[in-house]
Amino acid sequence: MSVKINSNGCTADLEYITIKCRLYYLPREFSSVTLTSLYHHPKADIGVALNIIAYVISEYENRDPDTLSIIAGDFNQANLKTVLPSFKQHVTCPTRGQRTIDHCYCKVKSAYKAIERSGLGTSDYSVVLLILPRGADSVWQRTPVERNVTLWPQSDVEELRDCFECTDWSVFGTHCDLDEYIITVTVTYAFVKTSTCRPEK
Fold first, then answer.
1. pLDDT (tens digit, 9 = 90+) per residue, 171-197?
2. Distance between CA 66 and CA 109 in Å, rounded?
3. What percent of the chain has pLDDT over 70?
4. What is the pTM of this model?
5. Distance between CA atoms of residues 19 and 69, nearest Å
6. Can you tell me the distance from the alpha carbon of 55 to that of 134, in angstroms, rounded to the nearest whole number?
7. How many helices (H) and strands (E) does the chain have?
8. What is the reported pLDDT for 139?
9. Helices (DSSP H) in the chain: which residue ranges?
């Protein structure tokens, strides 16, 4: 996994840091994960803070449109959806008293489920556990499916190898284009494969 700091800043209205991670495993829809952590002071200018973070996020998303952007932190009264409406807020439980001032945003709908945990030590902030996407574990709960699998005994493998080695493949591609050649070879392969009866399991 590689990690690189994209940008960071500290003003009277906003403190933030953005890092880009390239993980060993990611869904093919995403080229990387860009994480932004921020703090917005309750007495700071909300409009200025939101404009700064919107500019930062738009800038790195324009450079890498396939990145998965996750923005999390202490937003206080600020709401990122007012400047970036395509982002979804995933923290639904109170994080300080009865207020939800800590947010987590990304563009994937229902990406996380938030669960409130007790605060650390004497902190008046609750810890929020963001668990895996809903339905992510359904892959392991699917009903087993029966499939027929063709067995290839060693004798059949040798027979097929001999057959293909004796075939003059250049004949098929002499007077036809690539599509015709692919179809001809595929049909020939299917004929040779089915010419010998093989058990199925």
1. 766 666 777 777 877 887 777 777 655
2. 16
3. 86
4. 0.59
5. 10
6. 31
7. 3, 8
8. 41
9. 46-63, 154-166, 178-194
